[in-house]
Every structure is written in structure tokens, then in C-alpha cells.
Design a protein that fits this description.
Keywords: Calcium, Metal-binding, Repeat. This protein is mostly helical. It has helices at residues 3-16, 23-29, 34-48, 56-66, 73-83, 93-105, 108-119, 129-143, 153-167, 177-186, 188-195, and strands spanning 53-55, 90-92, 126-128, 174-176. The strands form two sheets. It has a two-stranded antiparallel ribbon with strand order 1-2.
């Protein structure tokens, strides 16, 4: 057996042995009850992730099941990266739970922070027009050609131009976290839009 085979075997053993943090710790860190976490973990392991870890491809497959009318792969990629806090290319059960906890039960502030992180693709603390265009285009692709009204490339660009102009308060070509928060808090439609995550679970 070559050295490479041993490395692969060692990796497989580590993956097989992965155990999540104790449920009590996750209960304290997340906004889920012990019973909810047990149900989620059972589903997480049985349905899609028997190793207890999700890679990006599996995550995209799961997302595709919820959005069969469009191509959700680009958006799933961005969500995956936002959930993957340690940037190791896989999601542990804890990372998955913490992401869901923020989206489904977090305060408006926590959900807006999560949304900012989603749009701030490179993690530099600013949202550029290109980053916003990438996310909005991915959302439009995911919604598919059957969405009402019909969405095309120009629609995404017009949407980004309008929103970016509103959010870039000091007109310096980037959106800071403070500008993002201030605009979102003032815009009733954004606040209502964040409320849809309340019904995730």
C-alpha cells in the first residue's frame, strides 16, 4: 500500500469517527431545543450525510431538491461558504445547526449579519457591486425561468443597480456593514423579507 493510500484511509477513518459537540453545548449555542437537535441530527446522518459531515456537492444536491424549477448550484455554493465558518470545504453538524439557528430563529440583527456575510463573498468587510450581482444572479437562476414576472439578465442588473444605489450611502462604490444595516432597518420590505425565515422549521 502506498503512502497516498494510507493518507486516504486515515482521512476516511477521521470522517467516519466524526462526532458532533454534545447536544447540551449545541442547545446553549443555538436556538434549538435538545429534541429538535436530536431530530435534525438523525435526519442529517441518515438522509444525506452518514459520515456526519456535508461536502459542497452534497449540499448543492440537497438545495436542488428544494428548487427543482431552477439552477440552485451557484446560490447553494454561496450559502455553503457562509455556513462553512472554518473554510475547510465541509460542513459539520454544528456549522449546519448554527447557520439554521441564525436563519430560522435569530434576531433581525443576526439575520442581517448573516445576509451581509453572504453578499460579502470575499470576506473583506465590504459588499461590491460585482459581489451583489453574483448573489442576485444566483438567486434569479435558482428561482428559474418560471418565476413571475419573468426574470432575465437585465432584470438582475437593474435590481442590483437600484439596491446598490440605495445602500451605498456615502457613494464610495462599496457597501459597509453599517450602511447595509442602516438601509435594511429603514426599508420595511427588507425587514419583512427577513421574516420569511421564521417559518423555515
Amino acid at each position: 500500500m502506498s503512502s497516498g493510500d494510507h493518507d486516504l484511509e486515515d482521512l476516511e477513518m477521521q470522517v467516519v469517527r466524526y462526532k458532533p459537540e454534545g447536544l447540551d453545548v449545541l442547545c446553549r449555542k443555538s436556538k434549538f431545543t435538545r429534541k429538535e437537535l436530536q431530530i435534525m441530527y438523525r435526519g442529517f446522518k441518515q438522509v444525506e450525510c452518514p459520515t456526519g459531515i456535508v461536502n459542497e456537492e452534497t449540499f448543492k444536491e440537497i438545495y436542488a431538491q428544494f428548487f427543482p424549477q431552477g439552477d440552485s448550484s451557484a446560490y447553494a455554493h454561496y450559502v455553503f461558504n457562509t455556513f462553512d465558518h472554518d473554510r475547510n470545504g465541509s460542513l459539520s453538524f454544528e456549522e449546519f445547526v448554527m447557520g439554521l439557528s441564525v436563519l430560522s430563529r435569530g434576531t433581525l440583527q443576526e439575520r442581517l449579519q448573516w445576509a451581509f456575510n453572504l453578499y460579502d463573498i470575499n470576506g473583506d468587510g465590504f459588499i461590491t457591486k460585482d459581489e451583489m450581482t453574483d448573489i442576485v444572479s444566483a438567486i434569479y437562476e435558482m428561482m428559474g425561468r418560471f418565476s413571475e414576472p419573468m426574470i432575465d439578465e437585465n432584470t438582475a442588473k437593474e435590481h442590483v443597480d437600484r439596491v446598490f444605489l440605495k445602500m451605498d450611502i456615502n457613494r464610495d462604490g462599496v457597501i459597509t456593514f453599517d450602511e447595509f444595516m442602516e438601509t435594511c432597518r429603514r426599508d420595511e420590505n427588507i425587514t419583512k423579507g427577513m421574516a420569511i425565515f421564521d417559518t423555515v422549521l
